[in-house]
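User: Modeling request: complex.
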Amino acid sequence: MVTARLPGTVADAHSTATAAPDPAPAPVWRPDDEPSGWRSWAGRVVHHPVVLRLAQVPVVAFVVTIIVFLVAHLLPGDPVTQLTANVNGITPEEVAQLTSQLGLDAGLADQLRSYLVGLLHGQMGISFYSGASVSSMLADALPATVELAVAAVLLAGLLGIVTGIVAARTQGTWVDHLIRGGATIGFSVPWFVVALVAILVFGVWLGWLPILGRLPTSLTYEPTTGFVLVDAVLQGRPDLIGPWLEHLALPALTLAVTSAGFITRVTRTAFLDAQAQQWVRTARMKGLTESAISVKHVLRNASVPILTIVGLMFGGLLGGAVVTEAVFSYPGVGSLLVEAVTRRDYFVLQGSALVIALMFTGVNALVDLSVLAVDPRLRRG
Amino acid sequence: MTSLVAAAAPRRGTTGWLSARWSARRVLRGPVAWLAWGTLVALSVLVLVGPLFVTADPQAQDSVALLPAGTAGHLLGTDDLGRDVLARVLAGGRPFLVVCAAATAASALIGTSLGLLAGFRGGWVDAVVMRAMDVLLAFPLVLVAILMVAVLGGGTGNMIVAITISQAPTFARLARNLTVGEVSRDYVRASRCLGHGSWHIALREVLPNVSGQVLVQTTSTLAVTAGLSSALSYLGLGQDASAPDWGYMVRAGQELIFSNPGLSLIPALLITAFAVAANFAGDDLRDATDLGRL
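Assistant: Request completed. Predicted assembly structure:
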């Protein structure tokens, strides 16, 4: 049908206007090929990269949901045995009743359907361990994980981009070698080892920072949104912010240190690549200062790979957050997941795995979209 | 006949593992590279041979608990249950190294085969294989490994399977993309003109040209599996607690971190040394093959 890859479309106009006149013969363009009116417009919209990328999100999310459901069904042991493990003298009839109550006697397809319908209503089952509903547990844990991941990615981005640019500007010197070596060591060290050393140095030897949890137990905190910073503003509780930052510092630093190395490497390479381009020579000939060239011409062009790696790191951070949260007893989704696996807490495992996987899907989509926003060349339909 | 193929073959930094270009003159350049490869070899030897020289039983709780390092008969002291730390450190490296090496090798082998198949056959084979890999890559790798261990249970064999499932897609994607680039080149066409079958072309012509990148990826994956397998054990999901294992020892020692930090720091340091050395070794290979500056 409509493909909208004809010359002279809106998206093309931007690039052809700035490019030098092309001596090569233009492809033959016949007016008959141009779909008119709304069909042309609709074609451009449907085939626009942003729309195509957005359309993938629900598909991936659906597949991810089904996989998590199937994996949860593969787990050894069944929920009813777990639920009744501590109940004395339970009869087979009661077991059968409970099984049908939980909907576990239905076929796999029926169970999947009721699981999906339940999800749409925000129902994800209950914890066998605490009896709390999984959705309320996740509502408490998710903001903590988001806070941790965002803090870590900001720290890692700052650290990685700055060291990457310094390494590129001092290419070949001992500073460059030192930064590159440090970057490799940074992303090689396992999360839990960094966490352990951080606990030992800052928590035990120096005693500067708390090593467990998200807020001190002495503080009373009633979550409104669950995000401490937002709640501190909403509830007029500035006393929350200090302890919150102190508790966030070590887990966020742990994740940032292990992720910054990759960002350093990619930034350095991207910066060197962009520096070697003709437009940098042109800018220099125009008499621009080196710092203006670095920021306006080099960094702008180097930002696509940098942005991509920062985004990918954010996805990787979610995995690292699982381990890091467990080490620091930080009450996030990762801690929930690890506890659920060790306790075989069926629905909690299913719910927390789903939330982590869906966050990963969402972040990956956001990364792709922001890359499109930065580089207009990629936006051509 | 073969000279025609040779003439059409790409002349790049490397042409594969059997080529003379893969000589030790290209790898092992600089002190960092020597240190990295040396650490990998030293750790392997230490863990494989070391237990033969230590008489203490890593499981025997026959001594005074928490002896300091340097005590006669207990070079690194004893842990909270009176077990010899040196014997446990040496014995605990075995499951760690076995999981790392086996999971990395299996990921590389399975992933590369799938990628080669997808890239070489194209069409629906490509679509099916790569979409399956995309599904796995739609999850954070740590989550895949944790879920797989949850399904399969702990233990060395299951950990190898779980980590392989999480790492193989990376190899498949790499090998597939490289293969797609290679199959349209002249040397593949020349080989086909000579009447070589698909198997011959895929394994003897394409694979050697893909293997350089795969080998580099394998070395970096060794570092990833080191972190992943020890993290699983640390979280109590991997190796069962009965046998000594580095990841689990870090966790067990953490409870005594205030008084005896060595109990968790020694295995943590060894895991880190292995992962860092693997990544530096990977960098060395990458430089040696001129495959990229990343």
